[in-house]
Amino acid sequence: MATPASGPSVLTRRGVLTAAAGTLLLSACGRESERTTAVARPTPGHELVVGATLELTGRGAALGVAQRRALAISAEAVNVKGVAVGNLRRTVRLEVLDNRSDPRLAARQATELGQREDVHALLGGALAETSMSIIGAAQKLRLPFVSLAFGDSITVPLAQRTFVYKVTPEAGDVARRLAQLIDTQGLRRVVLLVEQGLHGDSGVRAMTGALRTTGVEVVRTVRLPRSTDGATRAAEQAVAARTGGVVVWATAPNSGAAARALRTAGFTGNLFFDAGAVAEETLEGGNALAVEGAYAVHPSSLGGSTMANGSATGRAYRDLVSQYIRRHGAYNGFAPYASDALLLITTAAQLAASVDRGRLRAYLQNQVTDGMAGMYSFTPIRHSGMERHSLGVYRVDAGAWNRLS
Predict the structure, then answer these.
(1) What is the pTM of this model?
(2) CA distance 364 to 379
């Protein structure tokens, strides 16, 4: 595999794509040779160490636990053969810490991981607030960090986010799809019911602008409290506006609690969710009746398009779903962002032929990868890499997400 002689400072997007093509060819040749020779195994004593700070408890556990499960399954799959880094095959070792949904704890964990010479990259932060707290440590310690959170401010301003990347879709892309959907249904007035914090802030800006272009009026913007227990008052304010549609821009479990509170308050119109609502909790228990018929914009893996794909990514996704169901029960199709974050990091290591942090960062920012959740295209001036065409429109029918477009 060719490696630029002058280091990361002279990397070009074309060069990385060329290297990626070479990697695919080498992989194909490797599969051919494996038919007659033993399967390659990781080189003993050599690792690619990825730190992860996740919300395994606290208000972000609905997202964090699911990501830990997917991450563990994907790491096991990678380690069957290891990651080809230069002339070695490295084993992926995960260092997973519970940040308890506490931004201060997440920052301390990121610092501790970053100060270790054996940690090569970092992922995590399913909540925008925890991801934002990690950024300072990642930048100071020059540790590549792939965020799993929703919130556009995670990757901008770019000059202060040179080691930071994000796998979730942009708020603007989600908002445009939701605005088009609302417009086609003939609704002219809606309420925005958004959670407090950075994710909600992104939603307000994006939805206000997108709806303006379609001529739909935002009658009222109501903020959801951080606790699911306080959703009742916010829902009553939203219902009082008397519109036929409410956009709930919130991550699980707040999204499901908001839907339940809206129906209890007498709202009978259409509900629209952003991608942060898609988690097991949203469709379960007391939320089931409340969210029936609701719409969401989400990466296309939710509808099983990746499942039907005959590519390596499609096979990996099918294996992930199968293993997830076997170990943890029903799989409701949430996008495996942590699995894609790991894929981006391991691909960068392969292309760089190195686990050096600077080179990993350089190859992350010039990477085009077909992930399980969608297609990613990172550039030096764009670190939020999910392509907008990876998004689809879904509706909850009979307790399941069904793709409409």
Answers:
(1) 0.87
(2) 8
